[in-house]
Amino acid sequence: MTNSETKATLSFSDGSPSLEMPIYKGSIGPDVIDIRKLYGSTGMFTYDPGFMSTAACNSSITYIDGDKGELLYRGYPIEQLAVNGGDFLETCYLLLNGELPNAEQKKEFVTTVTHHTMVHEQMQFFFRGFRRDAHPMSVLVGTVGALASFYHDSLDINDPHHREVSAIRLIAKMPTLVAMAYKYSIGQPFVYPRNDLSYSANFMHMMFSTPCEPYKTNEVLVRALDRILILHADHEQNASTSTVRLAGSSGANPFACIAAGIACLWGPAHGGANEAALSMLEEIGSVDNIPEFIAQVKDKNSGVKLMGFGHRVYKNYDPRAKLMRETCYEVLQELGLQDDPLFKLAMALEKIALEDEYFVSRKLYPNVDFYSGIVQRALGIPTALFTGIFALARTVGWIAQWKEMISDPEQKIGRPRQLFVGSAKRDVPAIDKR
Ligand code: SDX
């Protein structure tokens, strides 16, 4: 970042001395006002619930232009990466290292990740403690956090080699753990990873093969899953990424930080929206019921939201939603489900919402979650596992952001302040005086 010639001056109507603050310019996007001297100079904090106007860090990884509907990973548009930028592991390499790999670098990276896909054999015993119908996100929070107990050789966050090994282990083992959570939920045996398969083909194999017969992956479906992973890989300082950064700022080990990110992603306002969007479509049931549902959404007292719509940053179409809709159509075509009623219902709902003043005036457009549930259901992924797939994909983004934070000389333990509106100091009365 560079200092801007312009400075920000804060002046007070009560004649208190004004305060000059530096403005920094990024390479693209909004400038920032450095308010770090504010409290020391004025005794006041800023107030910004939800951090609507607050930059918590500087980052070089992902950039979103909400008005243009643009998403860049290390400067590359998501449309190019998802369509002709190679596979998910190339995107992982890009997010972790800042540049796309050449053929030799990719081969080495794929080999390294492939040879870390197995989990310690004792990990299976953690699963047995869960009910079979446990939500997969509860299983992932538990098992990913538990990884820390197996890898004492890569917990020193100040050792770059430890950080590198932990990053690879997390990217490599997430598909194995997500597939194990699924197999456990349906009472089928765990399937070991296979080193002869690509990252996404291996995941489909661990999810859907059984020891009883050979399983052949469908390349169209594997490519669709790979694209879903690319679309979900990173997204600036969203709630779960901010959770990972805050957890990491205390020096917690990377496995614990990623477990914290999984917990945050679980919420229906965030990563849980794909599961909620599909449930919403199933609840609406048919195109005829759309007007009544839309009326409910407009009724503030109903508490009903159009799941898969709206975004804190995108005030235009989420570019991932467009790509997800294309992927959805390709998969349904491949499976002969082009007349899938839920897909038709989703497109009808999208069309109606995009022409409705209530949504247009609030700049509510489909986000990445609106179509991802339909395509994942078509791939045979159970609804409860949708957010687990999101967590699988976002692990590389979380760990890339965590690594960036750890090596940022400006980083400090995160510790926001507050506007206190509770009781001033008072004495404790004896119980017979209360
Ligand atoms: C993800 O941050 C990220 O980058 C997240 C993510 C990522 O990749 O990490 O992109 C992934 O989380 C995508 C978002 C998935 N969530 C959903 O689809 C759930 C439904 N969406 C909403 O909950 C909401 O849109 C949020 C949480 C996504 C954004 O909320 P904001 O930015 O805080 O906006 P807001 O709640 O202030 O809404 C502004 C207005 C309000 O109405 P008014 O008070 O002005 O009358 O729009 C309304 C809201 O009530 N509104 C909606 C709505 N979303 C906002 N009304 C109906 N349906 C919705 N979905």
Features:
single chain; 434 residues; mainly alpha; three-stranded antiparallel β-sheet; 18 helices; globular; binds s-citryldethia Coenzyme A
Bound molecules: s-citryldethia Coenzyme A
- The largest sheet has its strands arranged as 1-2-3
Computed over alpha carbons, the radius of gyration is 24 Å
Order of helices and strands: EEEHEEEHHHHHHHHHHHHHHHHH
Structural class: mainly alpha
Beta fraction? 5-15%
The DSSP helix count reads 18
Largest sheet: 3 strands, antiparallel
Written overview of the protein:
The protein has 434 residues and is mainly alpha-helical. 48% of the residues lie in helices and 6% in strands. It has a 3-stranded antiparallel beta sheet. α3 packs parallel to α18. The protein is globular, with a radius of gyration of 24 Å. The chain binds s-citryldethia Coenzyme A (SDX). S-citryldethia Coenzyme A is lined by residues 235, 238, 269-270, 273, 297, 305-312, 362, 364, 367-369.
What topology emerges from the helices and strands here?
Elements: E1 2-10, E2 19-25, E3 32-33, H1 38-42, E4 62-65, E5 70-73, E6 76-77, H2 78-84, H3 88-97, H4 103-114, H5 124-127, H6 136-146, H7 160-186, H8 199-208, H9 219-231, H10 239-249, H11 254-265, H12 273-284, H13 290-298, H14 319-334, H15 341-354, H16 357-361, H17 369-378, H18 386-406
Antiparallel strand pairs: 1-2, 2-3, 4-5, 5-6
Helix pairs in contact: 3-18, 6-7, 6-11, 7-8, 7-18, 8-9, 9-14, 9-18, 10-11, 10-18, 11-18, 12-17, 14-17
Bound molecules: s-citryldethia Coenzyme A.
